[in-house]
Amino acid sequence: MLTETAKVKTIDFGNSWDLDPQTGLCHEADGTAHWMAPEAIRQKGQRLAYDTKCDIWSLGITAIEMAEGKPPYADEYPVEHLIREAQPPRLQSNNW
User: Fold this and answer.
1) Does the pLDDT value for residue 8 go beyond 80?
2) Is the whole-model pTM more than 0.70?
3) CB-based contact 13:35 (threshold 8 Å)
């Protein structure tokens, strides 16, 4: 998407939530796990509380996907567990 001043923005209208105006945190999540930050993936009995740093995570995953042709853990299941428990993904290709 382009802004009025022609800045490029990566967006997803399908899954978006508002931040609480008092705390600056979000307590809801919905999306495709491959691009979700660990703190945005709900564990059983856990209350979510995350901020806009999750967007930076998603941008990084998008960059890895663009460079390597698929997101980290694309062939793994359940990916939600891997994202919560594993080290942050890095570029895997020897080209980088």
Assistant:
1) no
2) no
3) no
